[in-house]
Amino acid sequence: MEFRLYMAQRLSALVMAPFVLVHIGVMIYAIQGGLSAAEILGRTQGSALWFAFYGMFVIAVSIHAAIGLRTILLEWAGLRGTLLNAAAALIGVGLFALGAQAVLAVTL
Amino acid sequence: MAAQATAMKVTVERGGAGTESHRQSFDVPAYENQTVLDVVSWIQQNADPTLTYRFACRVGMCGSCAMMVNGVPRWTCRTHVSRVLKDGALHVGPLRNLPVIKDLAADMDPFFDKWVAAEGRHHPTRSREEEIQPVDPAAPERQTASAGIECINCAICYSACDTVAGNPDYLGPAALQRAWTVYNDAKDANKGAILDAVSGKGGCHSCHSMGSCTQYCPNDLDPLSAILGLKRATTRRFFKGAK
What we know:
The structure holds two protein chains of two kinds.
Chain A: H1 2-30, H2 37-44, H3 48-76, H4 81-107
Chain B: E1 7-16, E2 19-29, H1 36-47, E3 66-69, E4 72-75, H2 81-84, E5 89-93, E6 100-102, E7 105-106, H3 109-117, H4 140-146, H5 156-160, H6 162-166, H7 173-183, H8 191-197, H9 212-216, H10 223-240
Parallel strand pairs in B: 1-5
Antiparallel strand pairs in B: 1-2, 3-4, 3-5, 6-7
Helix pairs in contact in B: 3-7, 7-10
C-alpha cells in the first residue's frame, strides 16, 4: 500500500503542476481588466472546459494532500493503522467535498 | 596522570532498559591529542568501572564504537576531542533511534533485523555445480553496486536519520543501501524480491531525501542516492508491469 500511495502522490503532483500554472496564470490575467465576480461567473458557468479543469484539479489535490498529511500524521502525530488511514481518508473526502462544492457553484 | 593538563567537563548519558536515563558529569584530564573513545575509556578505567560502552578495533574498521557526541552520531575512535568540543564541554550518549542496553551501548537488534527485512541478501543465479559467473568490473551496474559495499554496519546513518526517528518502521539508510547494492549485483537472481521488500511498510518510499545518512556516513558512502535508485527502480517496474 505504501508504494501505491507513493505513486498516487507523485502522479497527482504531475497532474497538478500544469493546473497550478494555468490556475495562477488565468487569475492574474483575468483581473487585469478589472473583471467583476459576475463577469467571471458568466465565463465559467456552463463551461465544460472549466468544469473538467477544476474538477480534475480538485480530485488531484484531494489525493495528493491526503497522502501527504497521512505521512505527517504518522511521523509527527504518531497515528498508526486504522486510525491513521481513516484520518487520511477523511481529509481526502473532506477536501474533495469542499472542492467539488466550489467547482459546481462556479461552473454549473 | 602526572603530566596531565587541565580537566575537561564530560557528561555521559547513563542508564538503560528499565532504568531512567540521566546525565553524569566527570572531570577528565584534557590532552592535546585524544579521541572521544579515549575519554570514555578513561572514565571507565579511572572514574567509574560500571560504565558500559562498546568498542573493538579502535581504528575505524569495525563500527562498534558509534555514539552520539555532542548530539552528532560519530565513530568515537576516529573523533578527536579537540574537533568536537562545544564551549569546552563534551556530552556522550548512546546512538539515537535505537533502544539502549545500558549507558552507551545501544541495542543493534532493530537495525540488523531491518537489514534482513530489506532482502539485502544474495539470491544465487547458479548452483555450485556450475561455473562461476563472471562479473565485469567496468559495467555500470557493478560500479553502482561497488559504491555501497564498504558499509560496515555501524548504524551512524540510521542514528542520523530523522525519518527513522519519526517512523520506527522505516528500514533506514544502511539496510536500503545494502538492498540497492545486491539489486545491482549481476550475480543476483531475484531482483523482484528486493523491490518487493523495499516497497512495503517503512520501505524506501518513506524516505524524505533529507540526506543526513550521506552527510554523516564516516565512510563517505551515499545511502541517499542508493535509496533514490530504489525509488526509481520500483517506479520503473510499476510502469513496465512486472520486472
